[in-house]
Amino acid sequence: MHNKSVAELSRELESGKVSSVELTQQFLDRLKAEDGKYNSFITISEEQALAEARAADELRAAGKATAWTGVPFAHKDIFCTNGIRTTCGSKMLENFVPPYDATVTANFKAAGAVCLGKTNMDEFAMGSSNESSFYGAVTNPWGLSSGDKRVPGGSSGGSAAAVAARLVPAATGTDTGGSIRQPAALCGITGLKPTYGRVSRYGMIAFASSLDQGGPMARTAEDAALMMNVMAGYDPKDSTCIDREVPDYTATLNEPLKGLKIGLPKEYFSDQLSPAMEEQVRNAIREYEKLGATVKEVSLPNARLAIAAYYVIAPAEASANLSRFDGVRYGYRCEDPKDLMDMYTRTRAEGFGTEVKRRILVGTYALSAGYFDAYYLKAQKVRRLIQQDFINAFKEVDVLMSPVSPTPAFKQGEKNTDPVSMYLEDVFTIAINLAGIPAMSVPAGLVDGLPVGLQIIGDYFSEARLLNAAHQFQQVTDWHQREPQ
Ligand code: GLN
Question: Where in the sequence is the active site (predicted)?
Answer without folding.
Answer: 76 (charge relay system), 155 (charge relay system), 179 (acyl-ester intermediate)
